[in-house]
């Protein structure tokens, strides 16, 4: 449930045990992660040693958490401004780790009629791809009832730019948390992270990693060939391209480019794909 200063806090039934890792983990360069299913020996006074780590279905490096079922991506309608580019960056990182994304658009009660129309158009575009998208208002308690079922029986991570209301949201869902929140810095357009370690906290009937979210938004582990698979609407058309391994950039008879031309794929999504493609292509090699 929590890793802190060389101790691992393991929940079994209704008790939490403070454990250390076995020396053999260090030899194998293997560290228990928050979210791991482990076996452990209990010593005296609820202390113990972790003896084995079960196979993980996935793991994130930043935040360091394993066996994540879903990522709740929180983007704000305003302050900071709604950004499809940032949302798509989060979606690609989540898809690359085989995690189910759910999108929440917060602060909907702060937008003008014109801004509302624009955000609704984008909301429909993401829903057409197959993503679940919910909208939230700052003040409405009813919105919390709308959110709670999403957490049931799942390990979730919360992702999103600072200042979109992630911590405030979790505090409302579980008032016992008292997660520190920092106001957004308007000059920088970002807030300061106040969370220092990863911990799973109870929200509704599920568990949420209480972390600052993705501290790195770089595509440093994503191969160029894997990028289009992180766009579900492109992955669905991959087989229809003339060339196997089509990258949907310069190739002729590309089903993805044809779908963009007839608006079956949103042009802004394709533009972001090209932008990320360029970024990965220009990435400096790491040795």
TrEMBL record:
A single Gene Ontology CC term: cytoplasm
Subcellular location, record wording: Cytoplasm
Co-factor note (free text): Binds 1 zinc ion per subunit.
Annotated EngC GTPase domain residues: 66-215
Binding locations of GTP: 106-109, 160-168
Molecular function GO labels: GTP binding; GTPase activity; metal ion binding; rRNA binding
Subunit structure, as described in the record: Monomer. Associates with 30S ribosomal subunit, binds 16S rRNA.
Protein name: Small ribosomal subunit biogenesis GTPase RsgA
Organism: Paraliobacillus ryukyuensis
Higher taxonomy: Bacteria, Bacillati, Bacillota, Bacilli, Bacillales
């Amino acid at each position: 449930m929590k890793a802190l200063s060389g101790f691992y806090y393991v929940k079994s039934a209704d008790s939490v045990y403070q454990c250390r890792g076995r020396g053999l983990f260090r030899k194998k360069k293997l560290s228990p992660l928050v979210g791991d299913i482990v076996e452990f020996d209990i010593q005296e006074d609820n202390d113990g040693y972790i003896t084995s780590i079960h196979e993980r279905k996935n793991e994130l490096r930043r935040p360091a958490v394993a066996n994540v079922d879903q990522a709740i991506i929180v983007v704000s309608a305003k302050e900071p401004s709604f950004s499809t580019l940032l949302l798509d960056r989060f979606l690609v990182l989540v898809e690359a780790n085989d995690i189910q994304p759910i999108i929440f658009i917060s602060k909907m009660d702060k937008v003008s009629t014109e801004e509302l129309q624009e955000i609704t158009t984008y909301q429909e575009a993401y829903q057409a791809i197959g993503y679940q998208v919910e909208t939230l208002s700052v003040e409405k308690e009813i919105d919390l009832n709308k959110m709670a079922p999403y957490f049931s029986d799942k390990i979730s991570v919360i992702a999103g730019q600072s200042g979109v209301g992630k911590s405030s949201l979790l505090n409302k869902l579980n008032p016992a948390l008292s997660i520190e929140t920092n106001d957004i810095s308007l000059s920088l357009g970002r807030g300061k992270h106040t969370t220092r370690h990863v911990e799973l906290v109870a929200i509704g009937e599920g568990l949420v990693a209480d972390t600052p979210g993705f501290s790195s938004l770089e595509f440093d582990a994503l191969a160029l060939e894997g990028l289009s698979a992180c766009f579900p609407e492109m992955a669905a058309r991959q087989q229809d391209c003339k060339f196997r391994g089509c990258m949907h950039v310069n190739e002729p008879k590309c089903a993805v480019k044809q779908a963009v031309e007839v608006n079956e794929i949103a042009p802004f999504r394709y533009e972001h794909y090209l932008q990320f493609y360029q970024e990965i292509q220009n990435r400096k090699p790491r040795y």
